[in-house]
Design goal:
Largest sheet: 2 strands, antiparallel
Helix content: over 70%
Shape: globular
Distance between the termini: 23 Å
Radius of gyration: 23 Å
Strand content: under 5%
Structural class: mainly alpha
Subcellular location: Membrane
Membrane topology: Multi-pass membrane protein
Number of helices: 19
GO cellular component, one term: membrane
Protein name: CDP-diacylglycerol--serine O-phosphatidyltransferase
Main location: membrane
Protein backbone atom coordinates (compact mmCIF):
# COMPACT_ATOMS: atom_id res chain seq x y z
CA UNK A 1 0.00 0.00 0.00
CA UNK A 2 2.77 2.46 0.93
CA UNK A 3 4.59 1.62 -2.29
CA UNK A 4 1.48 2.36 -4.37
CA UNK A 5 0.98 5.67 -2.56
CA UNK A 6 4.62 6.60 -3.17
CA UNK A 7 4.39 5.78 -6.88
CA UNK A 8 1.19 7.84 -7.15
CA UNK A 9 2.90 10.73 -5.37
CA UNK A 10 5.89 10.59 -7.73
CA UNK A 11 3.63 10.50 -10.79
CA UNK A 12 1.65 13.46 -9.45
CA UNK A 13 4.86 15.48 -9.10
CA UNK A 14 6.19 14.50 -12.52
CA UNK A 15 3.09 14.37 -14.71
CA UNK A 16 0.54 16.64 -13.03
CA UNK A 17 2.88 19.33 -11.70
CA UNK A 18 5.49 18.95 -14.44
CA UNK A 19 8.42 19.14 -12.03
CA UNK A 20 11.69 17.61 -13.24
CA UNK A 21 14.01 15.45 -11.06
CA UNK A 22 16.74 18.10 -11.10
CA UNK A 23 14.24 20.72 -9.94
CA UNK A 24 13.35 18.46 -7.00
CA UNK A 25 17.06 18.15 -6.17
CA UNK A 26 17.62 21.91 -6.26
CA UNK A 27 14.42 22.44 -4.28
CA UNK A 28 15.73 20.10 -1.58
CA UNK A 29 18.84 22.25 -1.22
CA UNK A 30 16.84 25.49 -1.06
CA UNK A 31 14.49 24.06 1.59
CA UNK A 32 17.41 22.68 3.58
CA UNK A 33 18.99 26.10 4.11
CA UNK A 34 16.23 27.53 6.38
CA UNK A 35 16.09 24.25 8.34
CA UNK A 36 19.85 24.43 8.94
CA UNK A 37 19.62 28.10 9.96
CA UNK A 38 16.75 27.43 12.37
CA UNK A 39 18.87 24.83 14.19
CA UNK A 40 22.00 27.00 14.18
CA UNK A 41 20.13 30.01 15.61
CA UNK A 42 17.65 28.02 17.71
CA UNK A 43 18.51 29.82 20.96
CA UNK A 44 18.20 33.29 19.44
CA UNK A 45 14.94 32.39 17.67
CA UNK A 46 13.52 30.87 20.86
CA UNK A 47 14.27 34.10 22.73
CA UNK A 48 12.75 36.14 19.90
CA UNK A 49 9.48 34.17 19.91
CA UNK A 50 9.43 33.48 23.68
CA UNK A 51 9.34 29.70 23.41
CA UNK A 52 11.58 26.81 24.57
CA UNK A 53 14.58 26.34 22.29
CA UNK A 54 13.55 22.70 21.88
CA UNK A 55 10.55 23.90 19.83
CA UNK A 56 12.92 25.45 17.32
CA UNK A 57 15.01 22.29 17.38
CA UNK A 58 11.99 20.14 16.57
CA UNK A 59 11.00 22.47 13.71
CA UNK A 60 14.53 22.27 12.29
CA UNK A 61 14.57 18.46 12.54
CA UNK A 62 11.18 18.24 10.78
CA UNK A 63 12.33 20.53 7.95
CA UNK A 64 15.66 18.78 7.44
CA UNK A 65 14.05 15.36 7.86
CA UNK A 66 11.55 16.17 5.10
CA UNK A 67 14.38 17.33 2.84
CA UNK A 68 16.27 14.08 3.47
CA UNK A 69 13.13 12.00 2.87
CA UNK A 70 12.72 13.65 -0.55
CA UNK A 71 16.12 12.25 -1.55
CA UNK A 72 14.34 9.11 -2.76
CA UNK A 73 11.82 11.17 -4.76
CA UNK A 74 14.15 12.72 -7.34
CA UNK A 75 15.68 9.38 -8.30
CA UNK A 76 12.30 7.64 -8.48
CA UNK A 77 10.93 10.55 -10.53
CA UNK A 78 13.83 10.32 -12.99
CA UNK A 79 13.24 6.61 -13.53
CA UNK A 80 9.44 6.96 -13.73
CA UNK A 81 9.49 9.78 -16.31
CA UNK A 82 12.58 8.64 -18.24
CA UNK A 83 14.52 11.77 -17.31
CA UNK A 84 17.70 10.10 -16.07
CA UNK A 85 20.56 12.40 -17.09
CA UNK A 86 24.30 12.73 -16.63
CA UNK A 87 23.72 16.12 -14.99
CA UNK A 88 21.36 14.54 -12.47
CA UNK A 89 23.87 11.81 -11.64
CA UNK A 90 26.34 14.52 -10.63
CA UNK A 91 23.91 17.06 -9.14
CA UNK A 92 22.06 14.64 -6.85
CA UNK A 93 25.14 13.26 -5.00
CA UNK A 94 26.64 16.76 -4.71
CA UNK A 95 23.48 18.09 -3.07
CA UNK A 96 23.36 15.00 -0.85
CA UNK A 97 26.92 15.66 0.32
CA UNK A 98 26.20 19.33 1.05
CA UNK A 99 23.13 18.42 3.10
CA UNK A 100 24.81 15.51 4.88
CA UNK A 101 28.02 17.24 5.93
CA UNK A 102 26.39 20.59 6.69
CA UNK A 103 24.11 18.71 9.09
CA UNK A 104 26.86 16.58 10.60
CA UNK A 105 28.93 19.74 11.03
CA UNK A 106 26.34 20.99 13.53
CA UNK A 107 27.09 17.96 15.72
CA UNK A 108 30.85 17.78 15.10
CA UNK A 109 31.79 18.18 18.81
CA UNK A 110 29.95 14.91 19.53
CA UNK A 111 31.23 12.93 16.53
CA UNK A 112 34.32 10.73 16.58
CA UNK A 113 36.57 12.82 14.32
CA UNK A 114 38.44 9.99 12.49
CA UNK A 115 35.10 8.47 11.43
CA UNK A 116 33.83 11.85 10.21
CA UNK A 117 36.92 12.64 8.14
CA UNK A 118 37.12 9.08 6.76
CA UNK A 119 33.49 9.32 5.63
CA UNK A 120 34.10 12.73 4.08
CA UNK A 121 37.12 11.42 2.14
CA UNK A 122 35.24 8.31 0.94
CA UNK A 123 32.21 10.36 -0.11
CA UNK A 124 34.38 12.75 -2.12
CA UNK A 125 36.02 9.78 -3.85
CA UNK A 126 32.66 8.17 -4.51
CA UNK A 127 31.18 11.36 -5.98
CA UNK A 128 34.04 11.80 -8.45
CA UNK A 129 33.89 8.11 -9.41
CA UNK A 130 30.15 8.28 -9.99
CA UNK A 131 30.63 11.28 -12.24
CA UNK A 132 33.43 9.70 -14.28
CA UNK A 133 31.78 6.29 -14.53
CA UNK A 134 28.26 7.59 -15.17
CA UNK A 135 26.73 5.15 -12.71
CA UNK A 136 24.34 5.69 -9.83
CA UNK A 137 24.85 4.61 -6.25
CA UNK A 138 25.28 0.89 -5.61
CA UNK A 139 23.47 -0.92 -2.82
CA UNK A 140 26.29 -0.35 -0.33
CA UNK A 141 26.24 3.37 -1.06
CA UNK A 142 22.48 3.51 -0.49
CA UNK A 143 22.74 1.67 2.81
CA UNK A 144 25.59 3.97 3.81
CA UNK A 145 23.36 6.98 3.15
CA UNK A 146 20.58 5.42 5.23
CA UNK A 147 22.97 4.87 8.17
CA UNK A 148 24.19 8.46 7.92
CA UNK A 149 20.66 9.85 7.91
CA UNK A 150 19.58 7.83 10.95
CA UNK A 151 22.80 8.89 12.72
CA UNK A 152 21.88 12.55 12.15
CA UNK A 153 18.49 11.93 13.73
CA UNK A 154 20.11 10.42 16.83
CA UNK A 155 22.56 13.32 17.18
CA UNK A 156 19.64 15.74 16.96
CA UNK A 157 17.61 13.84 19.57
CA UNK A 158 20.67 13.69 21.84
CA UNK A 159 20.89 17.47 21.76
CA UNK A 160 17.14 17.99 22.23
CA UNK A 161 16.68 15.64 25.18
CA UNK A 162 20.19 15.68 26.71
CA UNK A 163 20.71 11.95 26.11
CA UNK A 164 24.44 11.26 25.57
CA UNK A 165 23.70 7.61 24.77
CA UNK A 166 22.11 8.79 21.51
CA UNK A 167 25.49 10.26 20.56
CA UNK A 168 26.99 6.80 21.03
CA UNK A 169 24.34 5.31 18.76
CA UNK A 170 24.97 8.03 16.20
CA UNK A 171 28.70 7.32 16.17
CA UNK A 172 28.05 3.59 15.83
CA UNK A 173 25.86 4.26 12.81
CA UNK A 174 28.51 6.52 11.30
CA UNK A 175 31.06 3.74 11.84
CA UNK A 176 28.78 1.35 9.97
CA UNK A 177 28.38 3.96 7.24
CA UNK A 178 32.18 4.19 6.94
CA UNK A 179 32.43 0.41 6.47
CA UNK A 180 29.70 0.44 3.81
CA UNK A 181 31.28 3.45 2.09
CA UNK A 182 34.65 1.67 1.99
CA UNK A 183 33.07 -1.32 0.26
CA UNK A 184 31.16 0.93 -2.14
CA UNK A 185 34.28 2.87 -3.15
CA UNK A 186 36.29 -0.36 -3.36
CA UNK A 187 33.78 -1.83 -5.80
CA UNK A 188 34.16 1.23 -8.02
CA UNK A 189 37.95 1.56 -7.75
CA UNK A 190 38.96 -2.07 -8.27
CA UNK A 191 38.68 -3.42 -11.85
CA UNK A 192 35.83 -5.89 -12.20
CA UNK A 193 38.09 -8.83 -13.09
CA UNK A 194 40.13 -8.22 -9.92
CA UNK A 195 37.07 -7.55 -7.80
CA UNK A 196 35.53 -10.90 -8.75
CA UNK A 197 38.47 -12.70 -7.16
CA UNK A 198 38.73 -10.40 -4.15
CA UNK A 199 35.09 -10.08 -3.15
CA UNK A 200 34.98 -13.44 -1.35
CA UNK A 201 37.33 -11.93 1.27
CA UNK A 202 35.20 -8.84 1.97
CA UNK A 203 32.62 -10.55 4.23
CA UNK A 204 35.43 -12.30 6.09
CA UNK A 205 37.15 -8.96 6.77
CA UNK A 206 33.90 -7.68 8.26
CA UNK A 207 33.65 -10.84 10.37
CA UNK A 208 37.22 -10.24 11.54
CA UNK A 209 36.13 -6.78 12.73
CA UNK A 210 33.35 -8.53 14.66
CA UNK A 211 35.91 -10.77 16.39
CA UNK A 212 38.13 -7.77 17.10
CA UNK A 213 35.29 -5.92 18.81
CA UNK A 214 34.51 -8.99 20.93
CA UNK A 215 38.13 -9.37 22.03
CA UNK A 216 38.36 -5.64 22.74
CA UNK A 217 35.25 -5.87 24.91
CA UNK A 218 36.79 -8.70 26.96
CA UNK A 219 39.98 -6.68 27.47
CA UNK A 220 38.03 -3.57 28.48
CA UNK A 221 35.84 -5.54 30.90
CA UNK A 222 38.87 -7.08 32.60
CA UNK A 223 40.33 -3.59 33.04
CA UNK A 224 37.11 -2.14 34.46
CA UNK A 225 35.91 -0.11 31.44
CA UNK A 226 32.40 -1.54 31.46
CA UNK A 227 30.64 1.11 29.37
CA UNK A 228 33.24 0.91 26.60
CA UNK A 229 33.12 -2.88 26.79
CA UNK A 230 29.37 -2.74 26.28
CA UNK A 231 29.82 -0.35 23.36
CA UNK A 232 32.32 -2.75 21.75
CA UNK A 233 29.75 -5.57 21.84
CA UNK A 234 27.10 -3.33 20.27
CA UNK A 235 29.62 -2.42 17.56
CA UNK A 236 30.26 -6.12 16.96
CA UNK A 237 26.53 -6.50 16.34
CA UNK A 238 26.72 -3.99 13.50
CA UNK A 239 29.55 -5.95 11.90
CA UNK A 240 27.57 -9.17 12.40
CA UNK A 241 24.65 -7.66 10.51
CA UNK A 242 27.04 -6.46 7.82
CA UNK A 243 28.98 -9.61 6.95
CA UNK A 244 25.94 -11.67 6.02
CA UNK A 245 24.31 -8.82 4.10
CA UNK A 246 27.53 -8.16 2.18
CA UNK A 247 27.97 -11.85 1.36
CA UNK A 248 24.42 -12.04 0.00
CA UNK A 249 24.80 -8.87 -2.06
CA UNK A 250 28.08 -10.08 -3.55
CA UNK A 251 26.72 -13.59 -4.07
CA UNK A 252 29.69 -15.23 -2.32
CA UNK A 253 29.89 -17.88 0.37
CA UNK A 254 32.41 -20.39 1.67
CA UNK A 255 32.60 -23.05 4.36
CA UNK A 256 35.42 -21.12 5.99
CA UNK A 257 33.26 -17.99 6.11
CA UNK A 258 30.39 -19.87 7.77
CA UNK A 259 32.64 -21.38 10.43
CA UNK A 260 34.47 -18.09 10.94
CA UNK A 261 31.14 -16.34 11.49
CA UNK A 262 30.21 -18.90 14.17
CA UNK A 263 33.55 -18.32 15.92
CA UNK A 264 32.95 -14.56 15.80
CA UNK A 265 29.48 -14.97 17.30
CA UNK A 266 30.89 -17.18 20.05
CA UNK A 267 33.54 -14.60 20.95
CA UNK A 268 31.45 -11.42 20.64
CA UNK A 269 28.05 -12.67 21.81
CA UNK A 270 29.02 -15.57 24.07
CA UNK A 271 32.34 -14.93 25.81
CA UNK A 272 32.34 -11.12 25.79
CA UNK A 273 28.91 -10.54 27.43
CA UNK A 274 29.60 -13.23 30.02
CA UNK A 275 32.98 -11.72 30.92
CA UNK A 276 31.40 -8.27 31.09
CA UNK A 277 28.67 -9.45 33.48
CA UNK A 278 31.18 -11.37 35.62
CA UNK A 279 33.50 -8.36 35.82
CA UNK A 280 30.66 -6.01 36.81
CA UNK A 281 29.86 -8.39 39.68
CA UNK A 282 33.49 -8.44 40.88
CA UNK A 283 34.06 -12.03 39.69
CA UNK A 284 31.89 -13.46 42.46
CA UNK A 285 31.52 -17.28 42.38
CA UNK A 286 27.82 -17.07 41.51
CA UNK A 287 28.58 -14.67 38.65
CA UNK A 288 31.25 -17.08 37.34
CA UNK A 289 28.78 -19.99 37.40
CA UNK A 290 26.05 -18.00 35.66
CA UNK A 291 28.53 -16.67 33.11
CA UNK A 292 29.68 -20.20 32.31
CA UNK A 293 26.04 -21.26 31.92
CA UNK A 294 25.42 -18.39 29.51
CA UNK A 295 28.47 -19.39 27.45
CA UNK A 296 27.24 -22.99 27.25
CA UNK A 297 23.79 -21.78 26.17
CA UNK A 298 25.45 -19.76 23.39
CA UNK A 299 27.28 -22.89 22.21
CA UNK A 300 24.00 -24.82 22.13
CA UNK A 301 22.27 -21.94 20.32
CA UNK A 302 24.94 -21.73 17.62
CA UNK A 303 24.97 -25.51 17.18
CA UNK A 304 21.21 -25.59 16.74
CA UNK A 305 21.35 -22.69 14.28
CA UNK A 306 23.76 -24.63 12.09
CA UNK A 307 21.64 -27.77 11.98
CA UNK A 308 18.08 -26.40 11.97
CA UNK A 309 18.07 -23.94 9.05
CA UNK A 310 15.98 -26.29 6.90
CA UNK A 311 13.23 -26.62 9.51
CA UNK A 312 13.14 -23.00 10.66
CA UNK A 313 10.56 -20.67 9.05
CA UNK A 314 12.13 -18.33 6.50
CA UNK A 315 13.19 -15.03 8.02
CA UNK A 316 13.06 -16.33 11.60
CA UNK A 317 15.34 -17.86 14.24
CA UNK A 318 14.58 -20.77 16.53
CA UNK A 319 15.31 -19.40 19.97
CA UNK A 320 16.57 -15.92 20.76
CA UNK A 321 19.56 -15.17 18.46
CA UNK A 322 22.88 -14.83 20.27
CA UNK A 323 23.40 -11.14 19.28
CA UNK A 324 20.03 -10.30 20.84
CA UNK A 325 20.93 -12.24 23.99
CA UNK A 326 24.22 -10.33 24.15
CA UNK A 327 22.33 -7.05 23.77
CA UNK A 328 20.11 -8.00 26.71
CA UNK A 329 23.15 -8.70 28.88
CA UNK A 330 24.89 -5.52 27.76
CA UNK A 331 21.80 -3.45 28.57
CA UNK A 332 21.59 -4.98 32.05
CA UNK A 333 25.25 -4.18 32.72
CA UNK A 334 24.55 -0.50 32.04
CA UNK A 335 22.01 -0.33 34.88
CA UNK A 336 23.29 1.01 38.23
CA UNK A 337 22.33 -2.33 39.84
CA UNK A 338 25.14 -4.89 39.22
CA UNK A 339 23.20 -7.97 40.34
CA UNK A 340 20.59 -7.34 37.62
CA UNK A 341 23.05 -8.64 35.03
CA UNK A 342 23.17 -12.03 36.79
CA UNK A 343 19.40 -12.38 36.47
CA UNK A 344 19.57 -11.38 32.82
CA UNK A 345 22.31 -13.97 32.18
CA UNK A 346 19.83 -16.64 33.29
CA UNK A 347 16.95 -15.19 31.25
CA UNK A 348 19.06 -14.76 28.11
CA UNK A 349 20.44 -18.31 28.36
CA UNK A 350 16.91 -19.73 28.68
CA UNK A 351 15.57 -17.68 25.76
CA UNK A 352 18.45 -18.75 23.50
CA UNK A 353 17.54 -22.40 24.10
CA UNK A 354 13.78 -21.84 23.79
CA UNK A 355 13.62 -23.47 20.36
CA UNK A 356 9.82 -23.68 20.25
CA UNK A 357 9.63 -19.88 19.90
CA UNK A 358 10.60 -18.03 16.69
CA UNK A 359 12.19 -14.58 16.59
CA UNK A 360 12.25 -12.56 13.38
CA UNK A 361 15.66 -11.78 11.84
CA UNK A 362 17.24 -8.49 12.89
CA UNK A 363 17.86 -7.40 9.30
CA UNK A 364 14.17 -7.85 8.50
CA UNK A 365 12.64 -6.16 11.52
CA UNK A 366 14.92 -3.10 11.21
CA UNK A 367 13.29 -2.12 7.91
CA UNK A 368 9.76 -3.23 8.82
CA UNK A 369 9.23 -1.61 12.22
CA UNK A 370 5.68 -0.37 12.68
CA UNK A 371 5.01 3.10 14.16
CA UNK A 372 3.67 1.39 17.30
CA UNK A 373 6.87 -0.68 17.71
CA UNK A 374 9.02 2.42 17.27
CA UNK A 375 6.89 4.25 19.84
CA UNK A 376 7.30 1.48 22.42
CA UNK A 377 11.06 1.14 21.76
CA UNK A 378 11.62 4.83 22.39
CA UNK A 379 8.98 5.07 25.10
CA UNK A 380 10.37 2.20 27.16
CA UNK A 381 13.93 3.43 26.73
CA UNK A 382 13.04 6.95 27.86
CA UNK A 383 11.01 5.60 30.78
CA UNK A 384 13.99 3.56 31.99
CA UNK A 385 16.23 6.61 31.66
CA UNK A 386 13.77 8.67 33.72
CA UNK A 387 13.52 5.99 36.43
CA UNK A 388 17.26 5.33 36.76
CA UNK A 389 18.63 8.76 35.75
CA UNK A 390 21.16 6.82 33.69
CA UNK A 391 21.02 7.75 29.96
CA UNK A 392 22.86 4.58 28.88
CA UNK A 393 19.98 2.31 29.92
CA UNK A 394 17.98 3.61 26.95
CA UNK A 395 19.64 0.71 25.10
CA UNK A 396 17.38 -1.69 27.04
CA UNK A 397 14.19 -0.34 25.46
CA UNK A 398 14.56 -1.66 21.88
CA UNK A 399 15.93 -5.07 22.87
CA UNK A 400 13.19 -5.73 25.44
CA UNK A 401 10.59 -4.98 22.75
CA UNK A 402 12.43 -7.33 20.37
CA UNK A 403 12.54 -10.07 23.02
CA UNK A 404 8.76 -9.76 23.39
CA UNK A 405 8.13 -9.57 19.62
CA UNK A 406 7.19 -13.27 19.11
CA UNK A 407 3.88 -12.34 20.75
CA UNK A 408 2.88 -10.44 17.59
CA UNK A 409 5.62 -11.23 15.03
CA UNK A 410 4.83 -14.78 13.98
CA UNK A 411 5.99 -16.73 10.90
CA UNK A 412 3.43 -17.32 8.18
CA UNK A 413 2.38 -20.93 8.14
CA UNK A 414 1.81 -22.55 4.75
Amino acid sequence: MLKRLFVSFVRWIGYDLGISPNQVTIGRLLCFIPGWLIWYYRYELAARFSCPWQVMGVIAILVVGTVIAFDIVDGALARETGQVSDEGKILDPLVDKVITYSTLGLFLPYIVKPIFYLLLFLDICSTFMRGSQGRGANQFGKRKAFSQNVAKLFFGLAALFSLPVFNLVGNLLLGLAAVLASISVGMRAVPQKWWTGMQVAVPQLITACNVGCGLLSIWLAIHGSFALGALSILTAMLFDLGDGAVARKLGVSSNFGKHFDSVADMVSFGLAPAVLAMAVNDWRPLALVLGAGYIMATVVRLYDYGRSKDITPAGFFRGLPSPAAAWLVVASVLFPVPWLSMLVLIAAAVLMCLFVVNWIHFNQIIFSLTPLEIFFCFGLGLLLVALTRTPEVFAAGPIVIYALSPKWRKPHRV
